[in-house]
Input
Amino acid sequence: MILCQHKLSRSNRDKLQQFVAITGASDKNALQALKASDWQLEAAFDVFYSQPQPRSNDPYSDMILAEGISVLCSDLQVEPQDIVTLVLSWHMNAATACEFSKEEFFGGLQALGVDSIGKLQEKLSFMRSELKDEQKFHEIYNFAFGWAKEKGQKSLALDTAIGMWQLLFAEREWPLVNHWCDFLQDRHNKAISKDTWAQLLEFARTVDPALSNYDAEGAWPYLIDEFVEYLYDKSVVEK
Amino acid sequence: MNLMTQSKESDSYLDTGDDASSSIKASTRDPSMLSELIAKRSFRASQNLSNQTSTVLKQRPAFNLASKVDEAAIPGERFLGILMLESKKLMNLKAPNTLIYRSRLSEERVNRIKPRGSRNWGQSPISSIYRFFFLGFDYCNCSDSGPSSSPAAMSNQKKRNFQIEAFKHRVVVDPKYADKTWQILERAIHQIYNQDASGLSFEELYRNAYNMVLHKFGEKLYTGFIATMTGHLKEKARLIEAAQGGAFLEELNKKWNEHNKALEMIRDILMYMDRTYIESTKKPHVHPMGLSLWRDNVVHSPKIHTRLLNTLLDLVYKERTGEVIDRGLVRNVTKMFMDLGESVYQDDFEKPFLEASSEFYKVESQEFIESCDCGDYLKKAEKRLTEEIDRVGHYLDAKSEDKITSVVEREMIANHMQRLVHMENSGLVNMLLNDKYEDLGRMYSLFRRVTNGLATVRDVMTLHLREMGKQLVTDPEKSKDPVEFVQRLLDERDKYDKIISTAFGNDKTFQNASNSSFEYFINLNTRSPEFISLFVDDKLRKGLKGIADVDVEVILDKVMMLFRYLQEKDVFEKYYKQHLAKRLLSGKTVSDDAEKSLIVKLKTECGYQFTSKLEGMFTDMKTSEDTMRGFYGSHPELSEGPTLTVQVLTTGSWPTQPAVPCNLPAEVSVLCEKFRSYYLGTHTGRRLSWQTNMGTADIKAVFGKGQKHELNVSTFQMCVLMLFNNSDRLSYKEIEQATEIPAPELKRCLQSLACVKGKNVIKKEPMSKDIGEDDLFVVNDKFTSKFYKVKIGTVVAQKETEPEKQETRQRVEEDRKPQIEAAIVRIMKSRKILDHNNIIAEVTKQLQPRFLANPTEIKKRIESLIERDFLERDNTDRKLYRYLA
Output
C-alpha cells in the first residue's frame, strides 16, 4: 500500500516485502520485527521466530493497521493508494498514515454520519468532491504533512513528501510540480520542514507559473527562493 | 543759524496775522526792526548759504522749522494764536463762544525764545510784544484743533460770564486774486529753475501759496505747479538730448541735481498746499510728483530712455573689458534711478543690466572654457565674481548684489558645471590626483554658490574615489603584500582627509562621501579584514620599534579608521585573534602597551563581547608564567637538561586549530609528561592537548668543522632536526614516518630548513626549491652564519592559502549562525509579531557592528527557528512571524 510505504525508504520497503514473502507474516508484524532488529533481515527473522508477539501486550490491539486498512480498502472497492483514503483519514483526524485508532475511526464515522460499509462507500464520491473545495483542500493539504510524517519526526522525509505532492497536485493543477520534485532531488535531498510544506501550497496558489508576481522579498522559505533560481537557471521560466 | 531762523519764523507768522486780518496790532513794534527782520528773512540769506558747501542739508532746517509750525515745534502760545486766526477765517467766525483771555506766557519763556542776534529787540519791553489779547474759540468742531485745546482755553470755556461780542470782520476777496497770486508764484518757479532765486522772498511766496490754498485755489495752484514744472523739465530734457557723447550723462546728472534743488525749494514754498490741500484730495505730494514728472518727462522721454540705458551698459561693458570709467557719475545716475523709486531702478536699469551681464558672461565663459583648463577657468570666474561684487559696492544698489552674482554664477559656473568637472587633464579628477588644494578649494567655494554644484563635485569625487579604490583593492598585484596593501589604503585616506580639510572646508557631506566610498571598496576585497589584521601584526611585531608612544597611537587610530569601514568585523576578529596568538606565543610583541591600547580601542568600538576573548589570551599568558614557576619549584631536578616552557591556553579564547599530533623527540616528551601530571595534579577535571603547531624550540647545534650555533626553530622543525642526531641521511618518507607531521606542514618546515639561503642547516638532494616526496636530506656540515643565534622561520605564506581561507570563511559563517538566531530571538521577544522585511532589516541593523548579515542566511535561521517552535507564521498573513514564548 503506497500510503503506508511512503514513510519507508526504498531499501526498507524491499526488505519488508522480502520478509513478508519469506515468513508470510502480516505487514504489521513484519514491520515490527524489522524495526526491532534495526532493519537487519537476518536478525529480524530471529526476532520474528524466537519471540512471537504476545497478543495481550500489543499496543496496537485496538487499532486498524495496514492489514486492516487493506481489508477496508477492498471492502470499499478503492485502491489503498487512492487519494480518497487521505480524505478519509482527514475526516477521521488520523494521527498517522496506515493507522486508525478506535477513537479516530469511530469519531470519524460519527462525524460523517456513517454506520455501515455501504454508507461509507456512498460517501466516497462526496469525499472526492471535497478535494475540489479550495478551503478543504487547504486543510487536507496541511493535514497530510502531520499524517504522512514518521512519528516523532519534525520533518517529512523527502521521498514521502514527493509522493504526497504528486498525489495532491494531481487533484489540484500546478504545472511546476514536476520541476519542484526534480529540484528537490537534484539540489536539496533533505527532509521537508512543515513550514516549507505549508508555504509551497501558498506559493502554488498565489504565484503564477510564469513567476511574474514572485517577490524575492516575499518571505518565502529559502528553499522556494532557490527553486525560483533553479527555474531561471534551467530556463524553465524566462526572467 | 537755527535760532536766527526761529526768530524769522515767529515774526513772519505775526506778520501774516497782521496782513490777513489786522485784528491784532503789534502796536509797540518798531517799524525799523520789522523791516530789518524781513530783510533777513529774504531768500537771499538762505540762498547765499545754499551756495556754500553741503547746501541742501544746511538749508533744510530753516524750511523745516517753518513747516513744523502746526506740530507745535516752537513754543505753544504764539502759534496757538495764529492757528486760532486761521481757524477763525476757516470757520468764518461761526463760533459764538468767543472769549478773551490774557496770555499766560511768562517773561521767562519769552526770553528763552528770544533770538540771540537781534539787538533791536531791546528797544521795547519784550514782554509787551506778546502780551496782547488772544482770541479763544471753542474748537470742538474744528478739524485742525491740535494745539488749541490747551488747558487755558478749556478752563475759560466754563466762565461764560466773560462772554463778549465777536469781532465783526469781513474779508473782501479780490476776484483776480488767484490769477495774480499764481503769477507771482509761477514767476518764482521760473526763477528757481533759472537758478535766479536769490531775490525771492520765501516768506512772501509761502504766504501767497498759503493764501491761495486758504482761498480755495488749491486746485489751480496744484495744476499750475505741475504744468510749470513739466514745461521746465521738457526744456531740460531737450538740453540733455542735445548733449553729445560723453557729456550726455554729465548733463543728465547736472540737470537732475538742479531739478532736485529746485524741487526742494518749490516744495517748501508749497508746503501748506502739501499739507492741507493735497492731503485732503489724496493727490501725490509735491516732492514725489516732482520726481515722477522728472521720470516721465526726462528719464522716459523716448530720446533719452534707451540712450541712457545704453550709455550705462556701455560704461559697464567698458569697465568689464578693462577700461577706467567715471564710477562717480554712474553712481549718481543709478542713485537717481533709486530716488525715482525701486521699481524705476529695477525696470529701467537693473533688468536690462542683468540681461546684458548674462549675455556678456555667456559669451565670455564660452570663450574661456574653450581656451582655458579647469583651474584657470575657475580663477577667472572667481575674479569676475569679485569684480561684480566690487561693482555693486561702487555704483549699484546693494540689493543688486545677489542678482548679479547669481547671473555670474549661472553663466560661468552652473551652465558649465559638468564640463568643468569632467574636463580632461585638468578637471576634478586631475586635481584630486595631483593634490591641487588651491584649485580644489576654489572649485568648492565657487560650486557651493550654485544649486547642485557641490553635489556634482561630490558625485564625481565619490565616483573617482570608488573607481580608484576598486582598482587598488582588486588588483592582484597590489594585494600581494598585505602590509603595503593596507599602507596604500591609509595613504589614500590621509590624502582625502587632507583634501577635505584644506580644500573643502571640512564639509561634512564630503567626509561622509569619502567614508562611504572607502567602506564600499574596502569591502570589495574579502581579504581586507585579514590584511588589516596583518598590517597591525606587522606593526606590533617590528614596525613600531623605536617609535614614540604618541606616534604609535596615531598609527593605531588610523588602523581603527579602516577597521570601522569593515563590514565583516567578525572576520577581522578571527584573524586578529590568530595573529595575536602567534605574537603572544612567540613572544614577538614589541610593546604590551600598544597591544593593550588597540584592544581598548576595539572594545570602545565594538563592545566588551568583541574583545573578551582577546583579553582572555593576555590573562592566559600571565597565568602560564605562574604555572611554570610552580612547576619548576616542585621539580628541582629539572634544572639540568632541556627546559620546557608551557603556555596553558583556555579553549575558546584562542583560535582553535585542530591539534596536529606529531611524535616529539623522547627528551621532550618525557618533560611534557611530567608537566601534564603536575598540572592535572593541581587542576582537576581538565584536559590538556599539545598544540605542536604553535610551539618554538631553541636547540644547540654543532656542525662539521665545529661551528656552534643556537637555532631557533618551530616544534616541527625541532622534531625533524633531532632525527639527524641518529642518522646522517634521511629520506622524506623516513622523516614523515618518524615524526608523523602532516605532509603540508612537513613540506613547509623542510623547505625552511633546507631551501632558505643562509639558514639551510640541512641539505636537500636534489637541490630545488620545492620539496618532493623522493627527496633526500643530509646535515649541511658547511653551514655558517655570522650570528651565533640563528632564527629559522617557517616559510609561512603570511597570507592564508586558498584552502585555509575557505576554512576560516566557513568557520566564520558557522559562528554567525548562532549570532543571527540570537538576534532574531531578541528582536522577536520584544516585538512579539513582526513582518518578514522588518525582521530582516532589524537583524541586519543589530548585527551591523559585527558583520553584514546575508538576508538568505537570516531567512534560513528564521526557518530553523520556526521548525524549533521559537517562531510561527501567522495563519492569515504568511509574511508575519509570531514569537512563541
